[in-house]
Specification:
The chain is built from 11 helices and 12 strands. Strand 2 and strand 3 form a beta hairpin. Helices cover about 35% and strands about 30% of the residues. Strands 1, 2, 3, 4, 5, 6, 7, 8, 9, 10, 11 and 12 form a 12-stranded mixed beta sheet that branches. It has 2 domains: about 140 residues, Aminopeptidase (3-Layer(aba) Sandwich); about 140 residues, Aminopeptidase.
Length: about 325
């Protein structure tokens, strides 16, 4: 929710970053939003890639939500899409009727261990086996704050990332550009780190991940990639185990691993992350139409390549975006 993170994705999405302040008596909450022009003087607002929602101590009631609709409509914002933060459970600050459960995410409490061996004893047997497999292959990990990370290292990580995305046939918004990867360092600096997995054969990066660090004692598993060789050597299990050990040693309280692909958790990514978690969280989204007439008019004005998507700018595009969530009955 920081200005730096919002600005990072405002630059990527070619829109502006704003924060809405909501005050009632002595209670205040803030709502960070990206504002995108959609034509004819109209706009829509949404949480950027990742998570967002309300930050503060004021919980909205149904009357507040209706007043918000009117406020946004007066600002020519026809629709609002919010991705709440599971680790904050800030979906509870909205009336339940406006929420839709999207998926489960995974989190782990961190603690200080005497050494790495003690740390891995806290993991399930399958994870311990995977970590020991990586250790037998002489894999090592190296952490680099992006403020001090050489450009070549970040470029190597990006090449791994692009190769993996191509294998998965992922295109469009989710195939991030090299520019935004580099901009993580420019905007976030020491609040973002690159963890490199180094093979035993020289200084060869075979995997890596970006972790974001915040001021509330949390670490966030952000983006990752690895070669097929690294996967066979259990490098990603080693990466997460190493990060859990390191960030606990540094005094962080929790690591949020994000979610998988399916709400029922019947997918490989959900199963992978759940092995490291001691808590499951719910990720809720929220969609508000603020100006019904303008919203319908703008949806009808241009052809929609993906008409099931809620945001108009997303519906017009031919490719998916992580903000593109389908909402039953909304469209």
């Amino acid at each position: 929710m920081s200005n730096e993170y919002q600005s990072l994705f405002a630059d990527y999405d070619d829109c502006s970053a704003k924060v809405l302040k909501i005050t009632c008596g002595e209670e205040t909450s803030y709502l960070p939003l990206l504002i995108k022009e959609i034509g004819n003087g109209y706009k829509e607002a949404y949480s950027p890639y990742g998570y967002g929602g309300l930050w503060g101590n004021y919980n909205l009631n149904e009357s507040d939500v209706e007043n918000l609709r009117k406020f946004f409509a007066a600002e020519a914002i026809v629709a609002v899409f919010i991705r709440n933060s599971p680790f904050l459970e800030n979906e509870k600050q909205w009336p339940r009727k406006y929420l839709e459960l999207n998926k489960k995410t995974y989190q782990r409490r961190l603690k200080k261990y005497n050494d790495f061996d003690q740390c891995i004893q806290d993991f399930p047997q399958k994870v311990r086996w995977s970590v020991n497999r990586a250790l037998r292959a002489n894999l090592t990990c190296r952490f680099l704050p992006l403020a001090k990370c050489p450009k070549d290292n970040l470029s190597r990580f990006y090449q791994l990332y692009v190769k993996l995305m191509n294998v998965k046939n992922i295109t469009g918004y989710l195939l991030f550009s090299e520019k935004i990867i580099f901009n993580h360092g420019q905007f976030l600096g020491n609040s973002c780190e690159l963890l490199e997995i180094i093979s035993s054969e020289g200084d060869n990066m075979i995997g890596g991940a970006l972790f974001m660090l915040d001021d509330t004692g949390r670490v966030h598993y952000h983006l990752s990639a690895a070669t097929e060789e690294a996967m066979k050597l259990q490098a990603m299990e080693f990466l997460l185990a190493t990060s859990i050990y390191r960030y606990g040693k540094l005094g962080y309280m929790e690591i949020h691993l994000g979610g998988g692909h399916k709400l029922d958790e019947d997918d490989g990514l959900s199963r992978f992350k759940s092995k490291f978690a001691d808590r499951k969280l719910e990720f809720h989204c929220l969609a508000l139409v603020c100006d019904e007439v303008a919203y319908k008019t703008e949806r009808a004005r241009l052809p929609l390549a993906r008409p099931s998507l809620f945001l108009i700018s997303d519906s017009r595009g031919a490719l998916p975006n992580p903000n593109h969530v389908k909402f039953a009955g909304q469209v």
